[in-house]
Amino acid sequence: MNPFRSALFAATLGLAPLLSTGLAAQQQAGPQIHARWSELGPAPISGALYAGRVSALACSPTDPDRYFAAGADGGVWRTTDGGQTWQPLTDAMPTTAMGALALDPSDENVIYAGTGEANFANHSRYGLGIFKSVDGGDSWRHLGAATFAGRCIARLVVHPSDPQRVFAAVTRAGGFPELAAAKGHPGATGALGVFRSLDGGASWTHLQNGLPNLSATDLAIDPASPNVLYAGIGRIFGSAQNGVYKSTDGGASWAKLGLGLPTGTLGRVNLAVAPSQTARIYALIVEPSDPAGGGASTRGAWRSDNGGSSWTAIDPGSMQQSYGWYLSVVSVQPTDSSTAIFGGFSLRRTTNSGGSYSTITPPHVDLHAIAWDAGGRLLVGDDGGVHRSANLGSSWTSLNAGLGTVQFYAGLSTHPTDDERVLGGAQDNGSNMRTSAGLGWNQVYGGDGGWTQWNQADASQVWVEYQGTANLYRSTNGGGSFNFRGNGISGRNCFLPPFLIDPTNANRMLYGTERVWRTLDGGANWSALSPDLTAGGAIRALAMAPSNPNVVYAATNDGRIQASTNGGSGFTLVASGVPGNLAPLSGCRIGRSVRLAIAGLRSIRTVFARRPAPWPKSLPAPSE
Amino acid sequence: MLAGLCAAGALRAQEAELLLPDCFTASVGGSLELRVESPAGLAAPWPGERLEWLFWRVGGLQENRDTLLPRAPGGQTVAVPLAASGVAMLGYDARPRIVAVRADGLRAFLAGRTGERADAALRALDPQSLVRVRSSAKTLVRVFGAAGELMPSSVATSKSGQAGEIRTWIDPTALRAGSDLPVEVHLSGAGRATLLAWPASRALAALVRPGPDGAARVRIDAKGVWILEAHAARRLPADPDADWEIASATLTFEVVR
């Protein structure tokens, strides 16, 4: 059973209270604890049958029902029945953050999984290298950790006739500000671009001759002339060095391609070689992102019919909103070089080499991966899991039953008396409630689901939020309907602001922007309780001591811990510079003493102190 | 957030389009007849060749079409089969078109639909402006299973991917009258939007100004069919083809409780 991926697991011993940090799944790093966890789902979310974000897909070249899917934060999964059922394959591996999958063209039982989701969001976790299986995914080896840890693998390519020769496109970890998602990993600022292994992934060489040390957001090999490779260099914040690069000597040297391609500062670059006409290449290029993650709209698409010597613009239209840094993928139909698929916020198809386009968006938007199965069917990985079309996108069906890849954010809550009932907010899949045994959950609220609260004194009252300030809603009928309860709150916010219910008085609640807000009437009215507790950021976690709800802690996303002993009216700065870079705070929880959960490199570290002070002058570094 | 009340208005070339089913409930295995109306309730031709993208989504399935034409020449409705139960989302993006609008008509539209005041810039409009109109429409329909069941659904709260969209964060077809409906308005690249909301049984619409992120909420205070209509307008000083752009998105659904 998977102790890492973000679909919810329940502990049978001891650690259940930490679930509300949203990080409890990572807590259980040791294999000896695996047996204590059982999966609760959702797999899938009801109705639309959504799973969580899928960042990579690979299909058997011989078996039309055998696929591999990489959950962006859910590990590698396999189906052998065309997506009716799925099995998790990498639960015991040290990370579930996935960016790339590749099958060895000479032996499809050899599988490479590149860790670290190369989609650059705050919730795109960094990787720890490459996993390799030689038995179809039944077992895995961990490779390349020293080379790649702290960064992400955007693409893996295996040479078609020399299976020891493997290439990896490597990017920085994401986040806004840049590298926030690296959480201070010492490997985060390591080498970027294209790497090559000549020994099946055991060792790697950074290919630098002609390539800039920038994120490689895509990589493709010419299957007919495998010494020819194309790399998309696409630092998302923009670079004049971004673009399409070509090697004709197996990666030993590279040259930037230009004729017909846009010049100047570009953003993310993705590309694909047409398998049936390998001189034909499609490229999708987006505008650079601004520092806050906006502005990365579609710059355009281009096609080359001569191996990249010249390019023609084939505008697919705006298809990425302002999130092209996050959503960009292109693929060519294996047997028809004139049919290409461009993915972003929506999905576009051309069947005439870019002359015209149709919109073929699947049941969930936000596209990250495209693959073709052995039967010629089109598969996509998106923020809602895996979807498949047998007619080039005109009709889609969900393949998400049993695919436990939903990425929960912090703020899970539980029913006061019924252990089967859980409420949690999920990345781009709303707030979802488990109401009975099994893996199916019902969505009770949309958007990006954030923190939740289940009133422990009145089980009919549940609280949810969605991204932004004061988007706070309460249900008084167990999630059947909701009403706005954020009146009066304003200010800066984390993407999903924290809020709490006083365990001794459900009408008293706290909410965090850059300040702490309080209601004494169950959310009908809120007023600011504290001054700005941040150094320009926002409060990321709140905690209230169950033994004394006047003891309140606030953790900010710029590394501060503030403590109050008078219910939040006054705060004392008890720590600053707390691993904001090294390991950002992700939640805190109060028991008899203060427990601060810190996201470490492979585990959560907890730090204890007497309440409310003294706080440790220096917090211990993560274990590795 | 409630900014005012507006009359539902009369048909103008630059106005939005409503996508309406023949019935807001259906059965799996059956089909829906879809038609288009103006916000004023006037029948409009089915967009047909004007469609850029038509889709319907229900129960983990989605169908996409470049166009869909009425079965009979000159017909104003199209039939859409429903293969799964749950809440179905159906919608389209129309191809952008440029229309010529008289100054008084544009001024009235901007004041009534976007809340623009009659400032100097609006008073100084050319006698006739060329307006690029971008319109998207969608509707939500409950599709019951063979045994009369209605599966809980996350379709109603999913993002459609349309160029313009009013997203709902709660399934409005499951709301009780008296509830708040949180929405986000997205009119890609078209500037800050305004939102009108009204039950079809009422002549006055609430005018709501979404926040910079498009977030707004609507008080659903009556049962019946509801119409939400969002607009954003911007000048196009450097555009060789149009003086203004008006983007719109609409949503229709039925509140039954």
Task: Explain what you see.
With 624 residues, chain A is mostly beta strands. Among the domains of chain A are: 208-359, Methylamine Dehydrogenase, Chain H (7 Propeller), CATH 2.130.10.10; 413-609, YVTN repeat-like/Quinoprotein amine dehydrogenase (Methylamine Dehydrogenase, Chain H), CATH 2.130.10. Helices cover 1% and strands 37% of the residues of chain A. Chain A is built from 2 helices and 49 strands. Chain A has a 4-stranded antiparallel β-sheet, with no helix packed on it. In chain A, strands 7-8-9-10 form a 4-stranded antiparallel β-sheet. In chain A, strand 3 and strand 4 (67-71) form a beta hairpin. In chain A, 62% of the residues are buried. Chain B is mostly beta strands and 257 residues long. Chain B has a single domain, classed as Sandwich (Immunoglobulin-like), CATH 2.60.40. Chain B is built from 2 helices and 18 strands. Chain B has helices at residues 103-113, 120-123, and strands spanning 2-7, 18-21, 25-27, 31-37, 43-44, 51-58, 61-65, 78-81, 86-94, 97-102, 128-144, 164-168, 179-187, 194-199, 204-208, 215-220, 224-235, 244-255. In chain B, the strands form 3 sheets. In chain B, strands 1, 3, 6, 7, 9, 10, 11, 14, 15, 17 and 18 form an 11-stranded mixed β-sheet that branches. In chain B, strands 2, 4, 5 and 8 form a 4-stranded antiparallel β-sheet that branches. In chain B, strand 17 (224-235) and strand 18 form a beta hairpin. Mean pLDDT of chain B is 87; it is low at 5-11.
Write the layout of secondary structure elements.
The complex is a heterodimer of chains A (624) and B (257).
Chain A: E1 8-11, H1 24-27, E2 37-41, E3 54-59, E4 67-71, E5 75-79, E6 87-88, E7 98-104, E8 107-115, E9 130-133, E10 141-143, H2 145-148, E11 152-158, E12 166-171, E13 193-197, E14 205-207, E15 216-221, E16 229-233, E17 243-247, E18 255-256, E19 269-273, E20 281-286, E21 298-304, E22 312-313, E23 329-332, E24 340-343, E25 347-350, E26 358-359, E27 367-372, E28 378-382, E29 385-389, E30 395-398, E31 413-414, E32 422-426, E33 430-434, E34 442-445, E35 453-454, E36 462-465, E37 472-475, E38 483-484, E39 499-502, E40 505-512, E41 516-519, E42 527-528, E43 539-545, E44 548-556, E45 561-564, E46 572-575, E47 585-590, E48 594-599, E49 604-609
Antiparallel strand pairs in A: 1-2, 3-4, 4-5, 5-6, 7-8, 8-9, 9-10, 11-12, 12-13, 13-14, 15-16, 16-17, 17-18, 19-20, 20-21, 21-22, 23-24, 24-25, 25-26, 27-28, 28-29, 29-30, 31-32, 32-33, 33-34, 35-36, 36-37, 37-38, 39-40, 40-41, 41-42, 43-44, 44-45, 45-46, 47-48, 48-49
Chain B: E1 2-7, E2 18-21, E3 25-27, E4 31-37, E5 43-44, E6 51-58, E7 61-65, E8 78-81, E9 86-94, E10 97-102, H1 103-113, H2 120-123, E11 128-144, E12 164-168, E13 179-187, E14 194-199, E15 204-208, E16 215-220, E17 224-235, E18 244-255
